[in-house]
From TrEMBL:
It comes from the Bacteria. This is Bifunctional diguanylate cyclase/phosphodiesterase. Signal peptide: none annotated. It comes from Kitasatospora phosalacinea. Residues 24-283 form the EAL domain.
Length: 296
């Protein structure tokens, strides 16, 4: 492969770029049919309440089982899907599929079922049909709106006059909640937070990840994270740290008052059966110890 062959060599064309261009082509050609052929699937990553340790939510992360290229992550195809417009049917499919899955967990586990978080592409948020799509999906799956959170990015809303803002307000009026994903990585003017009815900020995994980069100032890194936690709380918002890979980081985040965390330390994105197993396991832990019952 060009990727391997080119490592550490100077060439006129970046072989990595070339490999990517080829796969982008392969990706864009196959993608329209892929949806009909059922090649996409969704993994769910646990989101954990740092104070209690409970898995209170899951994030839906789309994947593509490409017949030639193997399983592709969203980084490989969501960009192309945005450019080609395929993100619209794909996004609708993810929303429906994930809401159906979440409703199934509610039916099986009641209030122990995790809340569902779904990523919204900029283009989806700007589409006039969004509110209707969400409304219809909630109705057809029977999922309570309070169980759904939509993750938008800082670039979704540009200003107070923005069309997307109306749709986002309508969704919140419906009972759906909004979260700002990858918070702190954009260049945006924070004033958008005054117009946006969000309830949660997700601190980008890159902030937490950089805390272990020997080339970066760890002390300053932690102060930025701590500042973002304070900012969220000052605004009355809950805050989630992404990319938490170690117990030490989780503990430090908990001590600084961060509400929720997500990352490999708590669980990688997983198949629905694995999530169900974790919910059931937590149920067992919470059940009274039978030994106690016999003694009394
Ligand atoms: P995101 O929404 O910020 O999702 C978090 C990403 O970080 C996921 O990558 C997840 O697998 C990864 N991650 C989680 N914990 C850790 C950790 O401890 N360490 C490290 N290094 N990484 C961790 P993934 O699944 O590749 O998704 C990448 C991005 O693709 C997502 O970033 C999201 O922006 C986008 N995406 C995923 N699914 C969808 C979707 O259905 N629709 C849209 N529009 N975008 C999606
Ligand atoms: Mg996200
Ligand atoms: Mg994120
Ligand atoms: Mg991201």
């Amino acid at each position: 492969r060009a990727k391997e062959a080119g490592r550490g060599r100077w060439t006129l064309f970046d072989p990595k770029e070339n490999a990517r261009a080829v796969s982008r082509y392969a990706v864009s050609v196959r993608m329209p049919a892929a949806l009909d052929r059922g090649e996409f699937f969704i993994d769910y990553q646990p989101m954990v309440d740092l104070a209690s340790g409970a898995m209170t939510g899951v994030e839906a992360l789309v994947r593509w089982r490409h017949p030639q290229l193997g399983v592709l992550g969203p980084e490989e195809f969501v960009g192309v899907a945005e450019e080609t417009g395929l993100i619209m049917p794909l996004g609708r499919w993810v929303l429906e599929q994930a809401c159906e899955q979440a409703a199934d967990w509610v039916a099986r586990f009641g209030d122990r079922a995790p809340r569902l978080s779904v990523n919204l592409a900029v283009r989806q948020a700007r589409n006039a049909g969004l509110v209707g799509d969400v409304e219809r999906t909630l109705r057809s799956t029977g999922l309570d709106p309070s169980m759904l959170q939509l993750e938008i990015t800082e670039s979704t809303v540009v200003g107070p006059e923005d069309e997307a803002l109306k749709a986002l307000h309508a969704l919140v009026d419906m009972g759906v909640s909004l979260s700002v994903d990858d918070f702190g990585t954009g260049w945006s003017n924070l004033a958008y937070l005054r117009d946006l009815p969000v309830s949660n900020l997700k601190i980008a995994g890159s902030f937490v990840g950089d805390l272990h980069d020997p080339a970066k100032d760890t002390h300053l890194g932690w102060r930025i994270v701590s500042g973002l936690v304070s900012l969220a709380h000052t605004l009355g918002l809950s805050v989630t740290a992404e990319g938490v890979e170690s117990r030490a980081d989780a503990e430090r985040l908990r001590l600084m008052g961060c509400d929720l965390a997500q990352g490999w330390h708590f669980g990688r994105p997983a198949r629905p059966a694995e999530i169900a197993r974790r919910i059931a396991e937590a149920d067992l832990e919470a059940a009274p110890d039978p030994e106690f019952g016999y003694e009394s």
